[in-house]
Amino acid sequence: MDTVSMDQRVSMRSRNELKLGLFGANCSSGRAVTLVDERWSGNWADCKALAQLADKVGLEFMLPVGRWKGYGGDTDYQGSTYETITWAAGLAAATENITCFGTVHAPMFNPIMAAKNIVTADHIGQGRFGLNIVCGWNEGEFDMFGMQQRDHDNRYAYAAEWIEVIQKAWGPDDDWSYDGKYLQHKKVRSKPKPWGGSRPVIMNAGASPNGRAFALKNCDAFFTTPSRVSDDQTREKVLAIKDEAASYGREIDIYTVGVVTCRPTMKEAQDYFHYASVEKCDWNAVRDILAIKNISPETVGQKAYDEHRIGYASSGMGGTTIIGDPDHVANTLIGWSKAGLRGVGMSFVNYLDELPFFAQEVLPRLEKAGVRVAVQ
Ligand SMILES: Cc1cc2nc3c(=O)[nH]c(=O)nc-3n(C[C@H](O)[C@H](O)[C@H](O)COP(=O)(O)O)c2cc1C
Q: Which domains does the chain have, with CATH numbers?
C-alpha cells in the first residue's frame, strides 16, 4: 500500500499556496437560488464531468453540501441532492488527484458506520477522501430523520465524541469500547484503516463560539468569511483564528467560500450576475429559506427583511461574491491568499459551463502571481 502522509492530505497533494475547490455541485441548483435555464442540474453525469475537469485543471477539492430536504420555491432549490460520502466515493473512482469531501451530519450517522463508509471511500480514492463535519442547520431535516436537533452546547459536545469515536475506529486498536455522555460502543473492530497510514483531512464551518472551538480543537481546516473592507482586516481575522487554534496547541488552515461570476469584461460579469441573481432569482425559494430562519417582514421589519433577501439571493446562501473580469477575480483571490486564507470553495451558476473560462483566464494569473503553479 502506498504511504500518504498527513502533510500530503492537508496540502491536498499540491504545492499551491492557494487551494481551490468547487463547493455545492452535489445539489440541484448548486448554490445559486436562480430560475435561469442553465442553472446547475446536480445530476451524476454533470458531477462526474465536472470533477474530471476540475482534476485536469489542477483544482484541489470537491466539497459537497450536506442537505436532505430542498428549500422549495419555484425550483425546489437544492431539492435534489446526492448523499455526500457515496458521491465522493464515485468521484474518487473517476479522478486521479483531487480530494473528494463528504459533508457528514454527525448527529445522523452512527460513527462506526461513518468511519467505515469513509474508509471505503478513502481506499477507492487511495487517500483522497476528506471529511467536512456538520452538526445540522435546519430543523426540518431533523424531523425527517425522526430526530431532534440538540442545543448548541450539546450539539458540538456530541460532535466531539463522534469524531473521537471515528478516530478510534481508524486507529490501531481492536476490541475497544467507548463510554461517553452521548455515545457508547462495545468491543469495536473496524478494518481496514484509512489509506496509506494517515487519516482523512477534516474540515468544519461552525460559526458559533462552540462551533468554532470544536473546529479549532478537532479539525485541520476551518471556514470563515473574509473582510469586505480590506485584505488587511482579513489578515487580522485569520491571525486571530490561528492564535486561538494555537491556544489549543493546534495549527489550522483557514478556508472561505467564493461565489464566482467571471466574464471577459466587468460589465458582462455584472450584467450576468444581475440577470441570474436578481431578475431571475427564485424569490419564492429565498422567502422559504428565510422563513426557516424565522426571518420575515413581521419578525425583523421590512427594511432588514429586504436586505436579507438580497443577501441570500446574491451570495448563494453564505459566501462572498466575486463578480468581474479575469483580472478582478484573480486579484481578489490573490489578495485573500496574501492575507493568509489557505483556500476557496467556489461556486458558479453552471460549474461545468463556467469552469473552462476560469481555468483558461484566471488560473494563469494566479500562477503569475505565485500563489499557484501550472499543472504539469
Ligand atoms: C462553508 C460552509 C459550508 C457549510 N455546509 C453545510 C452543509 O453542507 N450542511 C449543513 O447542514 N450545514 C452546513 N454549514 C453550516 C455550518 O456547519 C454551521 O452549522 C453554521 O455555520 C452555523 O454555525 P454553528 O453550527 O456554529 O451555529 C456550512 C457552513 C459554511 C460556512
A: 16-257+335-360 (3.20.20.30)
